[in-house]
Amino acid sequence: MKNRSKFSGFIKPVSILLALSFINSLFAEDAKKDDENLLVITANRTEQNINDTLAAVEIITREDIERIQPESITDLLTSIAGLDLVHNGGAGQSSSLFTRGTNSDHTLVLIDGVRVGSATLGNKSFSSIPVAQIERIEIVKGPRASLWGSDALGGVIQIFTRRLSLGEYTVEATTGSNDFLSSSVVFGFGSEKIANTVTLSYEDSKGYDVAIGDETDDDGYDRISAAIRGDYTLSDATQLDWIFQYDTGSNEFDNAFGANINDYTNHLLNIRYTYTVDQWLTQFSVKQNRDQTFSYGNGTEKGSGSVFETRRDQINLLTQYKINDEISVTGGIDHFVDNVERSKVVSFDFGLGQNVTRPFAVTERASDAVYLSSVMKFDRIIGEISARYDDVENVDTNKTFNISAGYKVLDNVTLAMSRSKGFKAPSFNDLYFPGFGNDQLVSEESYNREFLIKGHWQGHSAVFVKFENKVDKLIAFSFDPVLGFRPFNVDKADLSGLEFNYKYRHGKFVHKLSATQVDATDVSIDAFSGLAANEQLLRRAKELYSYELTASVGDLSFFTQFNYKGRRRDNAFDPITFETTPVYLDSFTQINVGMTYAVSEELKLKLKVSDLTDEESATIFTYNAPGRQIFVSFQYRNF
Q: For 524-553, what is each residue's pLDDT tens digit?
């Protein structure tokens, strides 16, 4: 009875809403099917209709981006079921993403197929990704390591950059609270066989005081980015495409113990050759990503602070063979090398009474993998199976898999079950951080199973997921009598919950609802008591709900968005005793509203108010939320 009553408050209103929406759809003369032919790539690494995938997939389109008017990419992800974001301040500050309760480094982030992020930290900073460059985002939830390898333990987020046709262009500028100013230019050029899209963007804000403490100054940020994406049709069977992206910027933050300014420079490059003939598809890609951060300020001179730089060279080969209309087989090889030789850590040595520069003991490692997968569709039966072998140099090898089976109970309703294994290789910080690393660490592992039901009908679409994910060998700091205070594979977590997505399009009105309930329980055994912690993991809310309404009346359109985050646990840190005390952050509902007025077919004026009711919506203890903010922008485009 306990488990049944636990989610009754969630299931009952959802059932009522579905029933009412279905009745409403019977009388909707202009209701239409939505998203029936939407294609996704990230779920199985090759193009596939979203309704034929057996994973929980969500897509954020360019239309969504322009409607929501986000200040950062995290504004786009906040309303996605299963994603829980916490922020060290506003748009220019660092943030952490917990996918279905997993850790912040358990979600793989790709940009146009390029694995991005820091090999030292083990994750990607969303604050450095400019919204102006984004065409769409694909979010796949659940372990996908059998296709993508390490980090895809909680899910995969792939960002695709802008693509315009020859002669198309768009110009946009925004101003708002905290002296916010941004501008962007996107244009397409080329010829009949060569197409290119260039995106240039700039953003600047004086910010606000992001944390409670002695530093009371505003913490601002700025960033400049440029990208070019293109393709060249060599023949009917062959194509060459490329992407180059460059970002640079700076952000201030509050820090009681050291540097309080980060300067960063990132770039990525992807050149891909595609050959298609008969039932065969072959792609060969050469990629590089660099993620570089310099830290200084607060008494540390620029050039004398810590440097964290990852250079990742990647080579990918993918081949797909369509045996017939029902079965396709895909295989591939992934190779990448992480290099952090230019990284250095500057810290204060109390014995010497001065700052000391320490390099990483090991600065390079290679990872090699092979994978094989198959997608099958026989009338009403759908199957997905994949397996992968990864060899991470100086760490370990990992065998991962995914087995999914689905059945179309109706032409537009699918039931599916899946079982999968994921892993996360330890980062360079975990292994080799000067004075604190542990080179004996092994990879974190997860075993996931889920049940999914999804359907689409007359302007409606809905997805319901029940998942269970057991994560073992989690890396956490612990005291050892010989090695001292270092990271070890000592933690475990049981993650389970429910996700629900619903979308209804009726004429000029679009309703979106998402609901998530997650039990992210720490079940690691305490070394002193011998008992499991059995507490919700830090900063994870058990309940996340979002509702969005979009409407259009003539030349005017508007949206209203409600985001609810439930109560969650955090730690209060005592800098004198170095002890932590549990604290609990209250739940809150944040309301965002916006409107767009079409002055003409080309020119649009926009207004957005974030956090309309000025809620106390801080997601980390001692950090301040930006509060109510107002933004005004214009957009001119010729298409």
A: 876 555 566 789 999 999 999 999 999 999
pLDDT band at 308 (very low <50, low <70, confident <90, very high): very high
Q: For the beta carbon of residue 446, count every other beta carbon within 10 angstroms.
A: 25
Alpha-carbon gap, residue 24 to 14, rounded angstroms: 15
Place of tokens 């090695």: 483
Identify the CATH assignment for 2-637 out of 1.20.1270.50, 2.40.170.20, 3.40.140.10, 3.40.50.720.
2.40.170.20
pTM: 0.92
Task: Collect all residues with Cβ–Cβ distance below 8 Å to 481 and sequence separation of at least 6.
Answer: none
As a whole number of angstroms, the longest Cα–Cα distance in the chain is 79
Indicate whether 188 pLDDT > 90: yes
pLDDT reported for residue 226: 97
The domain ranges of the chain are 2-637
The two structure tokens encoding residue 320: 């797909």
Tell how far CA 151 is from the center of its chain: 12
Is the distance from CB of 462 to CB of 502 less than 8 angstroms? yes
Phi and psi dihedrals of 25, rounded to 5? -65, -25
Q: Which residue, 286, 294, 274, 284, is CA-closest to 312? A: 286
Rounded distance between C-alpha atoms, residue 578 and residue 571, angstroms: 12
